[in-house]
Design a protein that fits this description.
With 106 residues, this protein is an all-beta fold. Helix content is 0%, strand content 46%. The chain has one domain. The chain has strands at 10-14, 20-22, 31-35, 42-48, 56-58, 61-63, 68-71, 79-87, 94-101, 104-105.
Amino acid sequence: MKLRDIPDATFVAIDVDGSFTRVPDAKGAHAIWFQCPCGKHHNLIAFEPTIDTEPTTRGGLSRTGGRWQRTGTTLDDLTLTPSIDVNSTSPGGSCWHGFITNGDVR
């Protein structure tokens, strides 16, 4: 499935207090927000490098990304590595373990 077609898929900026703001395009984004393929919740996946040419600063603190490495600058060409393993408290452990590669979610 295409990332673009997943409900609520958007780039977001992470604020100093941990909240996030949807951004109109990839510039200034620190993460991607989308409904989990399981359909039961949403995922916030932080990445680095951030899409700005300079690290985004909010409230004097730098928000420089997270664990996943990013290539691409749109929902159509975004690739995050390594794989994303969304833990679940339900029996069986993981609710979704997959990849975002060139805008495809599998």
